[in-house]
Write a structure and sequence with these properties.
The complex is a heterodimer of chains A (119) and B (427).
Chain A lengths: L2 H4 L2 E5 L5 E6 L5 H9 L6 E7 L6 H11 L3 E7 L6 H11 L5 E4 L4 H9 L2
Parallel strand pairs in A: 2-3, 3-4, 4-5
Antiparallel strand pairs in A: 1-2
Chain B lengths: L3 H8 L6 H6 L3 E6 L11 E5 L2 E7 L5 E5 L13 E2 L4 E2 L6 E2 L5 E3 L17 E2 L1 E4 L2 E5 L22 E8 L3 H8 L5 H4 L3 H4 L7 H8 L4 E6 L3 E9 L5 E9 L3 E4 L7 E10 L2 E9 L7 H8 L26 H6 L9 H11 L16 H20 L8 H4 L4 E5 L5 H4 L16
Antiparallel strand pairs in B: 1-11, 2-3, 3-4, 4-9, 5-6, 6-7, 7-8, 10-11, 12-18, 13-14, 14-15, 15-16, 15-19, 16-17, 17-18
Classes of the chains: A alpha/beta (119), B alpha+beta (427).
């Protein structure tokens, strides 16, 4: 299990002082999402992680809050090769309007690599 | 950021290094064909992946690439006499053929056969698409010849230049997949450079200065898509190709030629920036060729040794007036040297433990991780790395307008594959 799968919601502070909030949309509860939205003021970056083909409607709730507070949003879609183009397309359609950066990977491990790179 | 050991791994390509072994699984550009123009022409010194080599074309037109130094006393064979199907050391007359085999040892008695036991390390050198390519890896793993489209179209459809860049290959290559710098550093060139100007795509570029990026894994590397708003709720996509380890293709603009780069390590502190322009379906025009030779587009003016005329010793001919007046953003003229000047300013090997990456650097982040994974797979299980397969090389960059919900790699699937005689997808 990659580290990001070990928690559903995480706040971390990089050596630069940058605050990064990470949320796994596949496992996050309504409470997790509400907590993130409530604390988005203090974030510099919100990273949303979702499996290709999953329902990512929560991206709109989070994205709207980030947009209102001018917080950068970044979505990582994992396991893209495991689903059909149509399924990936549905997830993309949900996250694109609310993501200033989207990474589509086949491998969950890239999530930890990307998060580490932002330290 | 990277850990120090990761940065070391990704920036060291000499013999015996993990990334060096990875690079040695690919055909890489060694010389322009013009550098060895005819049989028995002067030999050329070549340094690649920290190996010092000598290249020559023998009396019969055969190409050779071998250890630069004579097996006898270590004299550089650059001083050699290229004559009668071999390169002869001027010190004591030892002569080597294109395979590195010593064929003559005139300072030894005539009846000895010792010369047959003396060879210099040599590598294959083949001509394709105006480029002399070499493969520095194990002979039993030699892959098929290069299949990049620029190197397979008729000669009159393609143009290649090279320039020395005085920094590590990775920081140069990372510039090639860093789409977000274009809106700053190269602004101004879209409307003035004859190899870019006058396209509909440029209008999208200039009317939406905040592109959104998507990075998607491909079989051979990555697609890096920059998305801007177009008409009727559609998106204008510019899709850059990165094929491992160091091939990048910039999305085309209108009917202009398609272009891109190879970033090839000379040693750990210098690299060759190879720059190509080609059109898949037509000959390049005289005007286009003149612009490329004049150092416009992605090319640069260079001296006889392929060092740019604007270089760090003359501050890249910095023009503060042009910078102040907005004619150039950095004060440096030309896209190639705008990039090179800043990348060289980072130092020979940038310390990636100190960088502060942001979301728009995701292409760079994922590319580094793909390289690290490929090195690990090669070292641990001998896995052939992505980008070796010719299918991975037969790709195109693209500029397309798509509906808003479509994954660009699927919606533009055909546009991203090189198909002989088919027009590029461009706006």
């Amino acid at each position: 299990m990659t580290q990001f799968r070990a928690v559903q919601f995480r706040t971390s502070q990089a050596p630069t002082g940058r605050v990064i909030r990470t949320i796994d949309l596949d496992t996050a509860t309504g409470h997790d999402i509400a907590r993130l939205v409530a604390g988005v003021d203090t974030a510099d970056l919100v990273v949303m992680i979702v499996a290709a083909g999953s329902d990512a409607h929560a991206a709109a709730i989070i994205g709207e809050a980030c947009s209102a507070r001018r917080v950068m949003t970044h979505t990582i879609i994992v396991r893209a090769s495991a689903v059909s183009d149509a399924a990936l397309s549905r997830t993309l359609a949900q996250v694109r309007p609310w993501s200033l950066m989207v990474v589509v990977t086949n491998d969950d491990d890239y999530v930890d690599d990307i998060l580490r790179s932002f330290r | 950021m990277l850990k120090k050991e990761q940065n070391d791994l990704l920036t060291q390509t000499g013999p015996g290094t993990p990334l060096g072994r990875l690079f040695r699984r690919y055909w890489i550009p060694a010389l322009l064909a013009e550098e060895l123009p005819e049989p028995d022409c002067p030999p050329v010194r070549v340094k690649l992946l920290s190996e010092r080599l000598i290249a020559f074309r023998d009396t019969d037109g055969r190409l050779g690439l071998m250890d630069e130094f004579c097996a006898h006393r270590g004299v550089s064979l650059w001083f050699g006499r290229n004559e009668e199907c071999g390169l002869r050391c001027p010190y004591h007359g030892w002569k080597f053929d294109v395979t590195g085999q010593c064929t003559d040892m005139p300072n030894e008695p005539e009846h000895t056969a010792f010369a047959k036991k003396v060879t210099l390390k040599s590598y294959p050198l083949v001509e394709q698409g105006g480029v002399l390519w070499t493969y520095l890896g194990p002979a039993d793993s030699e892959p098929p010849r290069p299949a990049y489209e620029f190197a397979t179209v008729p000669a009159n459809q393609s143009y290649m230049s090279k320039r020395m860049q005085e920094c590590n290959w990775l920081q140069a290559m990372e510039g090639g997949i860093d789409s977000s710098h274009v809106s700053f550093l190269h602004r101004g060139s879209l409307n003035t450079d004859p190899l870019f100007k006058g396209t509909r795509g440029n209008r999208y570029n200039l009317s939406d200065l905040s592109p959104v990026f998507e990075v998607v894994e491909s079989a051979g590397g990555l697609y890096i898509g920059a998305r801007r708003n177009a008409e009727h709720g559609h998106y204008y996509w510019r899709i850059t190709q990165w094929v491992m380890p160091s091939y990048t293709m910039i999305p085309p603009r209108g009917g202009h030629p398609v272009h891109g780069h190879f970033w090839i390590p000379i040693d750990d502190e210098n690299c060759w920036a190879w720059s190509f322009d080609y059109h898949p379906t037509r000959a390049l025009t005289d005007g286009e060729l003149a612009a490329m030779r004049a150092g416009l587009g992605i090319h640069a003016k260079v001296d006889a040794n392929y060092r740019p005329l604007a270089h760090r010793d003359n501050d890249y001919l910095m023009d503060r007036v042009a910078q102040r007046e907005g004619r150039t953003y950095s004060g440096i003229t030309g896209i190639a040297m705008q990039d090179a000047s800043l990348q060289e300013s980072m130092g020979p090997i940038v310390d990636r433990t100190k960088e502060t990456l942001v979301s728009t650097d995701s292409g760079i982040i994922v590319a580094r991780q793909k390289l690290l994974r490929a090195v690990k797979a090669l070292e641990e299980s001998g896995t052939v790395p992505p980008g070796v397969d010719p299918v991975h090389q037969r790709v195109r960059s693209a500029a397309v307008v798509l509906p808003p919900d479509q994954p660009f790699k699927d919606a533009a699937r055909e546009a991203l594959v090189a198909r002989p005689g088919v027009e590029p997808a461009t706006v």
